[in-house]
Structure formats: C-alpha cells, structure tokens
Amino acid sequence: MPRLRTVAALAGTALLTRRALRRRIERSPLWPLPALPVPTSGRPRARALTLTLARREEIADGVVQLSLTGRELPAWEPGAHLELTLPSGLVRQYSLCGDPADTSAYTLATRLVPADSGGRGGSREVHEELREGMRLRVRGPRNRFALRASHAYVFVAGGIGITPILPMLRAAEASGADWRILYCGRSKASMPFLDEVEKIAGPERLTVTEGLPDLQALFRDVPQAAAVYCCGPEPLMDAVAEVLPAGCTLHLERFTAAAPAEGEEAFEVELLRSGRTVTVAADESVLAAVRKELPDTAYSCEQGFCGTCQQRVLAGEIDHRDELLTDGERDGSMLICVSRARGGRLVLDL
User: Fold this and answer.
1) Which residue from 42, 88, 105, 136 puts its CA 20 to 30 A from 267's CA?
2) Which pLDDT score, from 0 to 100, does residue 119 have?
3) Burial group, residue 205, by CB count within 10 angstroms (0-12, 13-18, 19+)
C-alpha cells in the first residue's frame, strides 16, 4: 500500500506539473517556444482517393487521355480539376474533361511539355511512365474555374486548354444559352477532342484556327454582358483581355503561375518558430529563401496550384499570386512558392 500511494502521488505531481507548464507557455509566448496555434504546414489535407488507371490512349499529337476508375467518385462540375500524385511523388493538377454524370470514372488529358519548352517533368512522367492497371492517388475535385449562369457565353480554348472548356460546352448547350467557341492550336492534329467539339457546336458556333486567331472577329457581334471563358497559353489570354468588349466578364484558367511583375523588390521574412529571418531577393521566391534555412519545408508544383506549401502568415501584408486559395484562406495564409510581401516584411508560422 505505501508503494501504491507513492506511485499515485508521483502521478498526481506529474499531472499538476504538466498543467502548470501549459499555463506558463500560454501566458509567456517567448518561453520555451512561441505559444502559437498549430501551423498550417503538415495539417491534414483533403482525403486522397486511390483510383485505377483503366485506360490510357493518345488522342492527338503529344496528348494522352487517362481514364481513372473507382467507386462512388465525388461529384464535380465543369471547370473542376484533380490533383494527381505521380509515382515519383510529383503532384500535378489536370482539368476534368469527361462527363460529370459518370460517377465511375474521371477523364483527364495532358500534353507532353519538353524541358526546353518549360516542362518540369510531370507531363513526361505521365506520357512515359503511366500504364493501364496502375493505382494512382488523387485529391479533389476542386473548382477554381466554375461555369457561372449566364444568358450568353464565349469560349476561347488554346490547344490543351480545351480540357476544362469541353464540359462547359455541354452544359451551355443544355442550358439553352447563346454560346460560341473559338478553338485554336498549332495544327488540327495537335488539337484534342476536335471531333467532339465540332459535333457539339456545329459549324455555326465553332471557329477553328491553326495559328493566331482573329479575336476581333470573334467579339464583333457578341451578346451584351456575355461571360467569356478562356484557357490556353498566357499570350492568348492576354490577347483576349485586351479585346474584351465592355460589359463582358472574363474568366481565365492558367496552366502556369502568372509572370513576375516588373520592379520586384527584396523583403524580409521572419520565421517565428525557428527564430530566424531570411531575405527574399527580388528574383527568388519565398519558398526558395525559406528552404535555405529549412530544407524540409514541403512543396510540390511551385506554381501556386497545389497548396502543398501553404503557410500561416502572422504579420505583414501579402501579395497573393496563386490560383488556389479562397478569399477566406487568403486572410491568414499564403502559398510561399509564388506569393510575396506587399510591404517590406512578413512573419510566418515556421
């Protein structure tokens, strides 16, 4: 009995000590470590699904289509994309281009982008390493390019940019809206789903261009207040923005992060948990600067799409340049691969 009383007393003392230590940390954020909320990095992400690559086929020059099957797949709407984890661990985002009513399969398509054209290995892995029967992890769907209700639409697709547009055409047709589409590419042989687009649109609503399109002609008699959806190379989207008629709304889906603005300036980032401060040069990202001090900082796409590098911002004004975060998420966090400081300093929960 005396031994049991001693053990009980020691256990009680340990419990009181832990409680006292917790209260001390909460009252004194500088000892022994900042008493901050759990950081965003490492937080649980959306549930991943493991799907089967049931079919892989080349549907145009340099373009492969993937059909991923599974049971009771989450619903999606036109404009949505999936986050695909490749066998190497690379994470890439691809637009869904199949039928939203098909709950047994997701359809994706990707163009091979060589390294000398800016490719970073993801598309090459899809083209060269993925085989039918493989099991692949995906997250999503997520939609940052949703089709909004409108009485009239103008769709502009450049090459592989047809992937998020294709389900929109079916939806626009079903809604009874007035719509038209311009589909351009290097050559017809390189333009995926061209036959299907021709079937949906018909000659009266479809303009197909090999090379530079005539955007002035496209918008010459566009209905007032039409919704314009464009996906393709950056120069094409810039050109559409320049000729957009007054009153029309423009919706863009980018393949890559927006180009850096001219006149970038260096700034400091304090890593509060680590007790370090790094300088972000004018020509580098916050991610690159942080990884010099914290090399294990998680990242993947480096283009502001996947969210792997999202971090809590404790102080400072953020210049958001991503294509992912919602307005609510932007209030207190940033994607450090692309976003920057709007002033001279940021404080991160790292």
Assistant:
1) 42
2) 75
3) middle
Q: Are 121 and 89 in contact (CB under 8 A)?
A: no
On whether the pTM is more than 0.70, the answer is yes
41/50: higher pLDDT? 50
- Report the candidate in 171, 304, 177, 159 with the shortest Cα–Cα distance to residue 237: 159
pLDDT tens sequence across 106-148 = 999 999 988 777 777 889 999 999 999 999 999 889 888 999 9
274 C-beta neighbours (distance < 10 Å), count: 15
- pLDDT above 90: residue 240: yes
Per the CB < 8 A criterion, the answer to whether 311 and 41 are in contact is yes
Number of CB atoms found within 10 A of residue 34's CB: 15
CA 324 vs CA 245, 289, 308, 321, 339: distances in Å: 27, 22, 11, 9, 11
For 257-266, give one letter per residue: b (16+ CB within 10 A) or e: beeeeeeeee
3-state helix, strand, coil in the chain (%, to 5): 25, 30, 45
Please report, for residues 94, 186, 187, 308, 346, the alpha-carbon distance to residue 342 in angstroms, rounded to integers and kept in the order given: 30, 39, 42, 22, 9
Burial of 235 (0-12, 13-18, 19+ CB in 10 A): exposed
Nearest alpha carbon to residue 285 among 322, 327, 325: 322
Residue 65, pLDDT score? 98
DSSP state of 157: E
Q: In sequence order, what are the residues at sequence separation of 6 or more whose Cβ sits closer than 8 angstroms to the Cβ of residue 32?
A: 25
Euclidean distance between CA atoms 120 and 72, whole angstroms: 33
Q: Which two tokens stand for residue 263?
A: 């006149």
